[in-house]
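Sorry to interrupt, but I need a hand with the structure work. Could you write out one complete protein record for me, on any chain you like? Just paste the record in under my message, thanks.

. . .
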Amino acid sequence: MGDTAVIVGGGIGGLAAAIGLHRTGWKVTVVERTTVLDDAGAAISLAANGLRALDGLGVGEAVRAASRGQYGGGTRTPGGTWLARMDGRALEAAVGAPIMGVPRSELHRLLREALPAEALLTAEAGPVRATGTGRVQVELGEEVLEADVVVAADGIGSGVRGRLFPAHPGPVYSGSTVLRAITDGPVDGCGDFELTWGRGAEFGHIGLRDGRAEWHAVLTVPEGTRFPDPPAELRRRFHGWHAPVPALLDATRPEAVLHHDVRELRTPLPSYAMGRVALLGDAAHAMTPNLGQGACQALEDAVVLAAALADGPTVEAALTRYDAERRPRSQAVARAARQAGRMGHQLSHPLAVAARNTAMRLAPSGATLRMLLRHHDWEPPKLGRTPGAF
Protein backbone atom coordinates (compact mmCIF):
# COMPACT_ATOMS: atom_id res chain seq x y z
CA MET A 1 0.00 0.00 0.00
CA GLY A 2 1.30 3.46 -0.85
CA ASP A 3 2.02 6.14 1.70
CA THR A 4 2.49 9.43 -0.17
CA ALA A 5 -0.44 11.64 -1.13
CA VAL A 6 -0.80 14.99 -2.89
CA ILE A 7 -4.02 16.91 -2.21
CA VAL A 8 -4.82 19.52 -4.85
CA GLY A 9 -6.82 22.25 -3.10
CA GLY A 10 -6.52 23.65 0.42
CA GLY A 11 -10.15 24.37 1.19
CA ILE A 12 -12.22 22.58 3.84
CA GLY A 13 -12.41 19.25 1.99
CA GLY A 14 -8.76 19.19 0.96
CA LEU A 15 -7.46 20.03 4.43
CA ALA A 16 -9.80 17.47 6.01
CA ALA A 17 -8.60 14.76 3.62
CA ALA A 18 -5.00 15.64 4.42
CA ILE A 19 -5.70 15.36 8.15
CA GLY A 20 -7.35 11.97 7.73
CA LEU A 21 -4.50 10.60 5.62
CA HIS A 22 -1.88 12.07 7.96
CA ARG A 23 -3.55 10.42 10.94
CA THR A 24 -3.34 7.04 9.23
CA GLY A 25 0.36 7.35 8.45
CA TRP A 26 0.47 8.92 5.00
CA LYS A 27 2.93 11.64 4.09
CA VAL A 28 0.73 14.42 2.69
CA THR A 29 1.30 17.56 0.66
CA VAL A 30 -1.55 20.05 0.22
CA VAL A 31 -1.15 22.24 -2.86
CA GLU A 32 -3.21 25.46 -2.73
CA ARG A 33 -2.73 28.24 -5.24
CA THR A 34 -3.89 31.12 -2.99
CA THR A 35 -2.96 32.21 0.51
CA VAL A 36 -6.49 33.49 1.25
CA LEU A 37 -9.54 31.65 -0.09
CA ASP A 38 -12.10 33.90 -1.77
CA ASP A 39 -14.92 32.92 0.59
CA ALA A 40 -12.91 33.10 3.84
CA GLY A 41 -14.80 36.24 4.90
CA ALA A 42 -18.07 34.33 5.26
CA ALA A 43 -19.32 31.70 7.70
CA ILE A 44 -20.94 28.31 7.32
CA SER A 45 -23.32 26.07 9.19
CA LEU A 46 -22.16 22.60 10.19
CA ALA A 47 -24.70 19.86 10.79
CA ALA A 48 -24.21 16.78 12.97
CA ASN A 49 -22.85 14.70 10.09
CA GLY A 50 -20.13 17.26 9.40
CA LEU A 51 -19.29 17.54 13.09
CA ARG A 52 -19.06 13.76 13.40
CA ALA A 53 -16.68 13.70 10.45
CA LEU A 54 -14.56 16.31 12.22
CA ASP A 55 -14.66 14.17 15.36
CA GLY A 56 -13.36 11.26 13.32
CA LEU A 57 -10.48 13.47 12.18
CA GLY A 58 -9.66 14.48 15.75
CA VAL A 59 -10.57 18.16 15.39
CA GLY A 60 -14.27 18.13 16.32
CA GLU A 61 -13.76 19.43 19.85
CA ALA A 62 -11.73 22.43 18.66
CA VAL A 63 -14.30 23.29 15.98
CA ARG A 64 -17.19 23.03 18.45
CA ALA A 65 -15.36 25.42 20.79
CA ALA A 66 -15.17 27.99 17.97
CA SER A 67 -18.81 27.54 16.91
CA ARG A 68 -22.23 28.60 18.14
CA GLY A 69 -25.17 26.22 18.36
CA GLN A 70 -28.30 27.28 16.49
CA TYR A 71 -31.11 26.34 18.87
CA GLY A 72 -33.91 28.62 17.73
CA GLY A 73 -35.21 29.92 14.44
CA GLY A 74 -36.83 28.54 11.34
CA THR A 75 -38.37 29.82 8.12
CA ARG A 76 -40.48 32.98 7.75
CA THR A 77 -42.22 35.17 5.19
CA PRO A 78 -40.94 38.70 4.47
CA GLY A 79 -43.71 40.02 6.76
CA GLY A 80 -42.40 37.90 9.61
CA THR A 81 -44.99 35.09 9.69
CA TRP A 82 -43.46 31.78 10.71
CA LEU A 83 -43.78 29.00 8.15
CA ALA A 84 -41.78 26.39 10.07
CA ARG A 85 -39.89 26.39 13.34
CA MET A 86 -36.52 24.71 13.92
CA ASP A 87 -36.05 23.07 17.33
CA GLY A 88 -32.31 22.84 17.88
CA ARG A 89 -32.76 21.01 21.19
CA ALA A 90 -34.80 18.27 19.52
CA LEU A 91 -32.23 18.03 16.74
CA GLU A 92 -29.43 17.75 19.29
CA ALA A 93 -31.31 15.03 21.17
CA ALA A 94 -31.84 13.09 17.94
CA VAL A 95 -28.39 13.27 16.35
CA GLY A 96 -26.09 14.65 19.05
CA ALA A 97 -25.69 18.23 17.85
CA PRO A 98 -27.68 21.22 16.66
CA ILE A 99 -26.63 23.11 13.57
CA MET A 100 -23.42 25.01 14.46
CA GLY A 101 -22.32 28.34 12.96
CA VAL A 102 -18.60 29.03 12.50
CA PRO A 103 -16.59 31.57 10.46
CA ARG A 104 -14.90 29.91 7.50
CA SER A 105 -11.60 31.57 8.35
CA GLU A 106 -11.69 30.03 11.82
CA LEU A 107 -12.50 26.57 10.47
CA HIS A 108 -9.70 26.84 7.90
CA ARG A 109 -7.27 27.89 10.64
CA LEU A 110 -8.15 24.95 12.87
CA LEU A 111 -7.79 22.48 10.01
CA ARG A 112 -4.43 23.91 8.95
CA GLU A 113 -3.14 23.75 12.51
CA ALA A 114 -3.90 20.02 12.61
CA LEU A 115 -1.30 19.46 9.87
CA PRO A 116 2.49 19.80 9.90
CA ALA A 117 3.52 23.19 8.52
CA GLU A 118 5.66 21.50 5.88
CA ALA A 119 2.57 19.75 4.48
CA LEU A 120 1.16 23.04 3.13
CA LEU A 121 2.47 24.30 -0.20
CA THR A 122 1.37 27.42 -2.10
CA ALA A 123 1.57 26.66 -5.81
CA GLU A 124 -0.54 26.30 -8.95
CA ALA A 125 -1.21 22.63 -9.72
CA GLY A 126 -1.00 21.61 -13.34
CA PRO A 127 -1.72 18.34 -15.13
CA VAL A 128 -1.93 15.07 -13.21
CA ARG A 129 -0.41 12.05 -14.97
CA ALA A 130 0.11 8.38 -14.25
CA THR A 131 3.73 7.21 -14.34
CA GLY A 132 5.13 4.02 -15.76
CA THR A 133 5.83 2.83 -12.22
CA GLY A 134 2.18 2.88 -11.12
CA ARG A 135 2.40 6.19 -9.28
CA VAL A 136 0.94 9.64 -10.09
CA GLN A 137 2.65 12.93 -10.91
CA VAL A 138 1.38 16.47 -10.37
CA GLU A 139 3.05 19.30 -12.28
CA LEU A 140 3.78 22.49 -10.32
CA GLY A 141 5.36 24.69 -12.94
CA GLU A 142 8.89 23.38 -13.41
CA GLU A 143 8.60 21.12 -10.34
CA VAL A 144 6.92 17.72 -10.38
CA LEU A 145 5.50 15.97 -7.31
CA GLU A 146 5.17 12.20 -7.42
CA ALA A 147 2.78 10.35 -5.13
CA ASP A 148 0.94 7.09 -4.59
CA VAL A 149 -2.43 8.86 -4.71
CA VAL A 150 -3.71 12.29 -5.76
CA VAL A 151 -6.84 13.79 -4.19
CA ALA A 152 -8.51 16.46 -6.30
CA ALA A 153 -10.20 18.87 -3.90
CA ASP A 154 -9.79 21.85 -6.21
CA GLY A 155 -13.36 23.09 -6.08
CA ILE A 156 -16.24 23.50 -8.46
CA GLY A 157 -13.99 24.58 -11.33
CA SER A 158 -11.70 21.57 -10.79
CA GLY A 159 -9.02 21.35 -13.44
CA VAL A 160 -8.30 17.75 -12.43
CA ARG A 161 -11.95 16.78 -12.98
CA GLY A 162 -11.93 18.45 -16.37
CA ARG A 163 -8.93 16.38 -17.46
CA LEU A 164 -10.32 13.11 -16.09
CA PHE A 165 -13.78 13.61 -17.61
CA PRO A 166 -13.33 15.87 -20.66
CA ALA A 167 -16.81 15.03 -22.00
CA HIS A 168 -18.58 16.06 -18.79
CA PRO A 169 -20.44 19.40 -19.17
CA GLY A 170 -19.04 20.72 -15.90
CA PRO A 171 -20.69 23.20 -13.54
CA VAL A 172 -23.78 25.16 -14.58
CA TYR A 173 -25.51 28.21 -13.17
CA SER A 174 -28.22 27.28 -10.67
CA GLY A 175 -30.37 30.32 -11.43
CA SER A 176 -29.37 32.15 -8.25
CA THR A 177 -26.65 34.50 -7.09
CA VAL A 178 -25.68 35.03 -3.45
CA LEU A 179 -24.37 38.05 -1.55
CA ARG A 180 -23.14 37.46 2.00
CA ALA A 181 -21.07 38.92 4.79
CA ILE A 182 -20.37 38.88 8.51
CA THR A 183 -21.59 41.89 10.49
CA ASP A 184 -19.10 44.17 12.22
CA GLY A 185 -20.69 43.52 15.60
CA PRO A 186 -23.73 42.09 17.39
CA VAL A 187 -27.19 43.05 16.10
CA ASP A 188 -30.11 43.57 18.48
CA GLY A 189 -32.91 41.04 18.06
CA CYS A 190 -30.78 38.72 15.97
CA GLY A 191 -31.49 35.14 17.00
CA ASP A 192 -29.81 31.94 15.96
CA PHE A 193 -30.77 30.53 12.56
CA GLU A 194 -33.41 32.03 10.27
CA LEU A 195 -34.41 31.83 6.63
CA THR A 196 -36.93 34.15 5.00
CA TRP A 197 -38.44 33.24 1.65
CA GLY A 198 -39.84 35.91 -0.61
CA ARG A 199 -40.67 35.86 -4.31
CA GLY A 200 -37.48 34.86 -6.10
CA ALA A 201 -35.37 35.82 -3.09
CA GLU A 202 -34.14 34.49 0.25
CA PHE A 203 -32.52 36.18 3.21
CA GLY A 204 -30.97 34.17 6.01
CA HIS A 205 -28.60 34.48 8.93
CA ILE A 206 -26.78 32.42 11.54
CA GLY A 207 -25.41 33.61 14.86
CA LEU A 208 -21.69 33.32 15.61
CA ARG A 209 -19.94 32.68 18.90
CA ASP A 210 -18.68 36.26 19.35
CA GLY A 211 -22.18 37.72 18.92
CA ARG A 212 -21.79 38.74 15.30
CA ALA A 213 -23.95 37.21 12.58
CA GLU A 214 -23.36 35.95 9.08
CA TRP A 215 -26.12 36.79 6.62
CA HIS A 216 -26.78 35.80 3.04
CA ALA A 217 -29.11 37.16 0.38
CA VAL A 218 -30.00 34.84 -2.50
CA LEU A 219 -31.49 36.41 -5.62
CA THR A 220 -33.00 34.74 -8.69
CA VAL A 221 -31.39 36.81 -11.44
CA PRO A 222 -29.60 36.17 -14.75
CA GLU A 223 -26.10 34.73 -14.51
CA GLY A 224 -23.37 37.34 -14.20
CA THR A 225 -25.65 40.02 -12.73
CA ARG A 226 -23.61 42.51 -10.71
CA PHE A 227 -24.63 45.71 -8.93
CA PRO A 228 -22.71 49.02 -8.92
CA ASP A 229 -23.54 49.44 -5.22
CA PRO A 230 -24.38 46.03 -3.69
CA PRO A 231 -25.36 47.30 -0.21
CA ALA A 232 -27.70 49.90 -1.72
CA GLU A 233 -29.27 47.26 -3.98
CA LEU A 234 -29.83 44.94 -1.02
CA ARG A 235 -31.39 47.70 1.08
CA ARG A 236 -33.71 48.51 -1.82
CA ARG A 237 -34.79 44.89 -2.18
CA PHE A 238 -35.09 44.01 1.52
CA HIS A 239 -35.98 47.30 3.25
CA GLY A 240 -39.56 46.18 3.94
CA TRP A 241 -38.67 42.75 5.28
CA HIS A 242 -39.09 41.89 8.94
CA ALA A 243 -36.47 42.63 11.61
CA PRO A 244 -33.59 42.00 11.91
CA VAL A 245 -33.04 41.89 8.11
CA PRO A 246 -32.52 45.67 7.62
CA ALA A 247 -30.42 45.87 10.78
CA LEU A 248 -28.10 43.11 9.57
CA LEU A 249 -27.45 45.01 6.35
CA ASP A 250 -26.87 48.26 8.26
CA ALA A 251 -24.34 46.51 10.53
CA THR A 252 -22.16 45.42 7.61
CA ARG A 253 -19.26 47.28 5.99
CA PRO A 254 -19.81 47.55 2.21
CA GLU A 255 -16.36 46.15 1.46
CA ALA A 256 -17.15 43.02 3.50
CA VAL A 257 -19.90 41.89 1.11
CA LEU A 258 -18.97 38.86 -1.02
CA HIS A 259 -20.84 38.09 -4.24
CA HIS A 260 -20.81 34.74 -6.06
CA ASP A 261 -23.06 33.12 -8.60
CA VAL A 262 -24.27 29.75 -7.35
CA ARG A 263 -23.15 26.95 -9.66
CA GLU A 264 -23.59 23.21 -9.35
CA LEU A 265 -22.69 19.93 -11.03
CA ARG A 266 -26.18 19.25 -12.28
CA THR A 267 -24.99 16.31 -14.37
CA PRO A 268 -23.70 13.69 -11.91
CA LEU A 269 -20.20 12.32 -12.43
CA PRO A 270 -19.99 8.62 -13.40
CA SER A 271 -17.24 8.04 -10.83
CA TYR A 272 -15.31 9.85 -8.10
CA ALA A 273 -12.13 7.94 -8.85
CA MET A 274 -9.98 7.02 -11.81
CA GLY A 275 -6.79 5.04 -11.39
CA ARG A 276 -4.98 6.57 -8.43
CA VAL A 277 -6.84 9.88 -8.50
CA ALA A 278 -9.87 10.62 -6.29
CA LEU A 279 -12.28 13.55 -6.55
CA LEU A 280 -13.61 15.09 -3.33
CA GLY A 281 -15.96 17.88 -2.24
CA ASP A 282 -17.12 20.40 -4.82
CA ALA A 283 -14.81 18.87 -7.42
CA ALA A 284 -16.96 15.73 -7.18
CA HIS A 285 -20.46 16.93 -6.30
CA ALA A 286 -20.81 20.72 -6.14
CA MET A 287 -24.33 21.40 -4.91
CA THR A 288 -26.55 24.37 -4.17
CA PRO A 289 -26.39 25.60 -0.55
CA ASN A 290 -30.09 25.14 0.22
CA LEU A 291 -29.56 22.30 2.72
CA GLY A 292 -26.30 23.64 4.16
CA GLN A 293 -24.62 20.36 3.24
CA GLY A 294 -21.81 21.35 0.88
CA ALA A 295 -19.03 21.43 3.48
CA CYS A 296 -20.55 18.56 5.43
CA GLN A 297 -20.49 16.29 2.39
CA ALA A 298 -16.86 17.23 1.72
CA LEU A 299 -16.00 16.33 5.32
CA GLU A 300 -17.78 13.00 4.94
CA ASP A 301 -15.76 12.39 1.77
CA ALA A 302 -12.52 13.07 3.63
CA VAL A 303 -13.15 10.56 6.43
CA VAL A 304 -14.43 7.82 4.12
CA LEU A 305 -11.45 8.31 1.78
CA ALA A 306 -8.92 8.14 4.62
CA ALA A 307 -10.57 5.04 6.08
CA ALA A 308 -10.66 3.30 2.68
CA LEU A 309 -7.00 4.04 1.98
CA ALA A 310 -6.04 2.87 5.48
CA ASP A 311 -7.80 -0.46 4.90
CA GLY A 312 -6.41 -1.13 1.42
CA PRO A 313 -5.51 -3.64 0.17
CA THR A 314 -4.42 -1.47 -2.79
CA VAL A 315 -4.90 2.18 -3.69
CA GLU A 316 -7.11 1.23 -6.63
CA ALA A 317 -9.30 -1.04 -4.50
CA ALA A 318 -9.57 1.64 -1.80
CA LEU A 319 -10.66 4.29 -4.30
CA THR A 320 -13.24 1.90 -5.78
CA ARG A 321 -14.67 1.45 -2.28
CA TYR A 322 -14.60 5.22 -1.68
CA ASP A 323 -16.55 5.83 -4.89
CA ALA A 324 -19.11 3.14 -4.06
CA GLU A 325 -19.72 4.59 -0.59
CA ARG A 326 -19.72 8.30 -1.36
CA ARG A 327 -21.23 8.76 -4.79
CA PRO A 328 -24.80 7.55 -4.08
CA ARG A 329 -25.19 9.52 -0.86
CA SER A 330 -23.58 12.78 -1.96
CA GLN A 331 -25.43 12.84 -5.29
CA ALA A 332 -28.72 12.19 -3.48
CA VAL A 333 -28.02 15.12 -1.15
CA ALA A 334 -27.21 17.30 -4.17
CA ARG A 335 -30.55 16.41 -5.77
CA ALA A 336 -32.38 17.20 -2.54
CA ALA A 337 -30.60 20.56 -2.25
CA ARG A 338 -31.58 21.48 -5.79
CA GLN A 339 -35.21 20.57 -5.10
CA ALA A 340 -35.20 22.60 -1.89
CA GLY A 341 -34.06 25.65 -3.82
CA ARG A 342 -36.76 25.22 -6.45
CA MET A 343 -39.45 24.92 -3.80
CA GLY A 344 -37.99 27.70 -1.69
CA HIS A 345 -36.52 31.01 -2.75
CA GLN A 346 -36.65 30.34 -6.50
CA LEU A 347 -40.45 30.34 -6.59
CA SER A 348 -41.71 33.66 -7.87
CA HIS A 349 -45.29 33.18 -9.08
CA PRO A 350 -47.69 34.51 -6.38
CA LEU A 351 -49.96 31.44 -6.52
CA ALA A 352 -47.02 29.04 -6.23
CA VAL A 353 -45.59 31.01 -3.31
CA ALA A 354 -48.96 31.07 -1.54
CA ALA A 355 -49.43 27.32 -2.03
CA ARG A 356 -45.96 26.57 -0.67
CA ASN A 357 -46.48 28.80 2.36
CA THR A 358 -49.82 27.21 3.15
CA ALA A 359 -48.36 23.72 2.86
CA MET A 360 -45.50 24.61 5.20
CA ARG A 361 -47.78 26.16 7.82
CA LEU A 362 -50.06 23.11 7.78
CA ALA A 363 -47.25 20.56 7.92
CA PRO A 364 -46.93 18.58 11.20
CA SER A 365 -44.59 20.16 13.75
CA GLY A 366 -42.05 17.35 13.39
CA ALA A 367 -41.81 17.56 9.59
CA THR A 368 -38.83 19.93 9.62
CA LEU A 369 -36.98 17.75 12.11
CA ARG A 370 -37.58 14.62 10.04
CA MET A 371 -36.31 16.38 6.93
CA LEU A 372 -33.10 17.42 8.71
CA LEU A 373 -32.56 13.96 10.14
CA ARG A 374 -32.49 12.43 6.67
CA HIS A 375 -29.19 14.20 5.99
CA HIS A 376 -27.73 14.87 9.45
CA ASP A 377 -27.94 11.32 10.81
CA TRP A 378 -24.68 9.82 9.52
CA GLU A 379 -21.88 7.95 11.26
CA PRO A 380 -18.26 8.12 10.04
CA PRO A 381 -16.06 5.04 9.68
CA LYS A 382 -13.33 4.54 12.25
CA LEU A 383 -9.90 5.61 11.12
CA GLY A 384 -7.20 3.04 11.61
CA ARG A 385 -4.19 4.66 13.20
CA THR A 386 -0.79 3.66 11.88
CA PRO A 387 1.90 3.46 14.61
CA GLY A 388 3.98 6.62 14.63
CA ALA A 389 1.32 8.70 12.86
CA PHE A 390 0.48 12.01 14.61
